[in-house]
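This is your field. Have a critical look at the following sequence-structure pair:

***
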Amino acid sequence: VQLQASGGGLVQAGGSLRLSCAASGSIFSSDVTGWYRQAPGKSRDLVASITNSGTTNYADSVKGRFAISRDNAKNTVYLQMNSLKSEDTGVYYCALTRRGFGNIWGQGTLVTVSS
């Protein structure tokens, strides 16, 4: 499986962006896809995740502002980010967690929120 992330950019505080993560290759029903954020000098933390059946999970810091969704026909997972804050700035990575295998990472996409 290969993951291709896109959609990052520069946005003013309060604005919105939508990230996309397109997967190529075989997707298993037990796979979970997540978006992670790595701010400068900080660890890579989970922002949101979604199972193949659509169950979602969010970090407390983004609840009510971000929404993760998927289009299984396109093997693509989206992260809609609204009401962006300067602390949302970072490199966003998508990753597929496969049971018994671990994380498969895509490349990052940079999100910069200006205040």
User: Anything to note?
Assistant: Strands lie at 2-6, 9-12, 17-24, 32-38, 44-51, 56-58, 66-71, 76-81, 90-98, 102-114. The longest strand covers residues 102-114. The mean pLDDT is 96. The radius of gyration is 13 Å.
